[in-house]
Amino acid sequence: MTVTQVALRPTEASNAANRPALTPELLAASGARYSRSNDGLQAILSKIDPNNLDKSVDGIFKMIDYGHQSIADMAPVAMFIDELSIHLAYYVWTLVPTAGGQESSTRYIRLSADSLPSAATFGIPNSDADEWRGLMADSFQAYLDAVALWESVAAAIPDVTRIPRSLLEDSSTKAQKTVARMQRNYAFDRARYFLPVAAATNMMLIMSARGWVTLCQSLLSHPLPEAVRLGELIRQELAIAAPRMLRHATEKPSFVQGLRREFARLQQDAIAAESPYLLADSPLAEHPPTPHLAVMPPPDVDEAMLMEDLADHDNRYSFVGERLKRVAVRFWWDAMAMGEIRDLNRHRTGTKSVPLRPVGFYAALDQWPQQLRDSEQYKQLCQLEQIGKNGTRRAYQLLRNGDHSHPYWTLLGTQYPFEHTTTADKFLYEAELRTGTGAHYRYARHLHEALQLWYQHYPATCGVILEGSAEPE
């Protein structure tokens, strides 16, 4: 795993216009100075010594410190993180949902086992290491086999991919490359459930120094060694961009105790749940994802007002009225695959809750065409499903035993409860985005079901809300 802080530099146009360029802490100090004087920007910048930028921070504003959180919020820092696990990337997003950034996509990139770290990296004891490595090898092979199976479906029945007929019949090189890409993505979308969450991914984040400090506090206080290692690497890079923040980027007793309590509660829930299909000698069935939605409108807001707030709604970025923003919405599913949780978890607004207590495994069997259900390929896919079930069951047992490393035994098809609390305008944006062009078929289905529940509360909004059909792009 590596972490690299990447500095921002002025554009050529900025240099040509003689605009100032500041380090992250100088930018924060200059902004902070506005709160303690009525000097203009040029008066503040005149205090900067170009030969000693670090000292200039104190010359402009002596209170630049994490204790003044609004100041630390004005120091932007970008970092690129190579080869962390999919699980840890998911966890980082839960801690900093408002950060800007990207992550390597399991929908468009073929992943391999080449960079899978050792069991010790994840805190898996030596006594379980061989078993874990065997599961990882089986899972990656199942992923590759599933990609091949779904590619065979796309070739045999092109219509299942929903690729436009005009593209399929176009013999030009450009069109055929587009078709090949769309067929590949169709296969990736259905095969990714066999990918282990221990697989390596890459992510980039840009946020304030305050955000990085808070992230470090959580990671360095975590019981998982991979999380601690990432916190240490981020801290080293933070020293380059915002050195005054370092004394706060440490393990915190409150975080240690809080994380310990939350895990103990998760363990007790797993013990109390007594899921019969997740215990050792029981068959493991897919847990059907049941959608739920609750709305809490202010007493002075009715459906007619919400329709008025959507009067100019011609795309998901359009203006929405104030009353729609005042309606609280809580929507959740009792089972959702981690593959979809990773995507829905990244929505910035509100609060998401994902107790990492496995409740089943999803292998995309429902996507197999009915006319091919008697084929050998379908039987092979059903056999592959057992690998995901085995990993999910093992993770559940480890959680009940109090093993913090239990998530690293799971795959992207492992299901957990998922809940999101936000406001109606943000819920509708998410629903339109996640059912729109290029949306993954599975979370498009989830959000479609959530919208059906919304229409039960506000039937007049059906047709005004721009629900998509997840057509491929």
Folded structure, characterized:
The chain folds into three domains: 2-106 and 199-251, Gyrase A, domain 2, CATH 3.30.1360.170; 119-194 and 369-405, no CATH class; 291-361 and 413-461, Gyrase A, domain 2 (2-Layer Sandwich). It is 45% helix and 12% strand. It has helices spanning 12-16, 24-33, 41-45, 53-60, 69-72, 86-95, 126-156, 165-168, 173-191, 209-220, 225-241, 253-273, 303-309, 338-344, 376-400, 424-433, 441-457; strands at residues 2-6, 76-85, 100-103, 200-208, 291-296, 328-337, 351-353, 360-361, 414-423. Helix 2 (24-33) packs parallel to helix 4, helix 7 (126-156) packs across helix 9 and helix 10 packs antiparallel against helix 11. The two termini are 33 Å apart. Mean pLDDT is 89; it is low at 63-67.
Please write out the topology.
Elements: E1 2-6, H1 12-16, H2 24-33, H3 41-45, H4 53-60, H5 69-72, E2 76-85, H6 86-95, E3 100-103, H7 126-156, H8 165-168, H9 173-191, E4 200-208, H10 209-220, H11 225-241, H12 253-273, E5 291-296, H13 303-309, E6 328-337, H14 338-344, E7 351-353, E8 360-361, H15 376-400, E9 414-423, H16 424-433, H17 441-457
Antiparallel strand pairs: 1-2, 2-4, 3-4, 5-6, 6-9, 7-9, 8-9
Write a concise synopsis of the structure shown.
The protein is α+β, with helices and mostly antiparallel strands. It has helices spanning 12-16, 24-33, 41-45, 53-60, 69-72, 86-95, 126-156, 165-168, 173-191, 209-220, 225-241, 253-273, 303-309, 338-344, 376-400, 424-433, 441-457; strands spanning 2-6, 76-85, 100-103, 200-208, 291-296, 328-337, 351-353, 360-361, 414-423. It is globular, with a radius of gyration of 25 Å.
